[in-house]
Amino acid sequence: MTLSSPRRSALADQVIAQLRNQITSGEWAVGSRIPTEPELVEQLGVARNTVREAVRALAHNGLLDIRQGSGTYVVATSELAGVMHRRFASADPRHVAELRSTLESSAAKLAAERRTERELKQLDTLLERREQAWASGDREAFVAADATLHLAVVAASHNDVLTELYADLGHLLRDWLRDDVALEMTPENHMDHGRMIDAIRAGDAERAASEAAAHAFICLPDRLEGRRTD
């Protein structure tokens, strides 16, 4: 659809809104490269300067990353996620683990109190998918399955604000998990989440919170060891 407006600023706002929708809808996934500037000009029917202005605005807001010689990539699905990604990317690993522990333990506690039977079935399915991904040795598949399970636990808390905040942090947490997963996905390195799901099923809020809190710190010593410079 060709966009048109007598005012350039209004036109740029329309293009920004349309490009943002491509990102938030998932059509342009995080990590993917968006169409080139000439391609966007053709698709949107606007001037090159308008496209450039819109892309730069979304890059400034943290949704896009312009990489000279490579292209422009999606790095976040919301402005808040973009801000948090920039803010926490070089943060102290212990602080990130503490944040993750706080959010996930609170969510698991609420999930144990509020989850529905339908959500329990979904958690069982996602847990099985996570176990299968680990057994396959496919690290990327495991990271995706693990992240999906945790997000489902948070969603089962029925706290929309907590769920939205956790989703905005999701891509950053996946980056940390990807680094934490051992190159050799062996039984001794496996992070069991079955006890957390069992506690949620039993309605044991304190045990669910305790199990969830522990997951964030499993690989932390290795990460801290890697940061030492002495």
Concise overview:
The chain is mainly alpha-helical and 230 residues long. 68% of the residues lie in helices and 3% in strands.
Describe the structure.
- With 230 residues, the protein is mainly α.
- It has 2 domains: 8-76, Orthogonal Bundle (Arc Repressor Mutant, subunit A); 82-227, Four Helix Bundle (Hemerythrin (Met), subunit A).
- It is built from 11 helices and 2 strands, in the order αααββαααααααα.
- It has helices at residues 8-24, 37-44, 48-60, 79-88, 93-114, 117-136, 139-155, 160-180, 194-202, 205-215, 220-227, and strands at 64-67, 71-74.
- This is GntR family transcriptional regulator.
- Residues 9-77 form the HTH gntR-type domain.
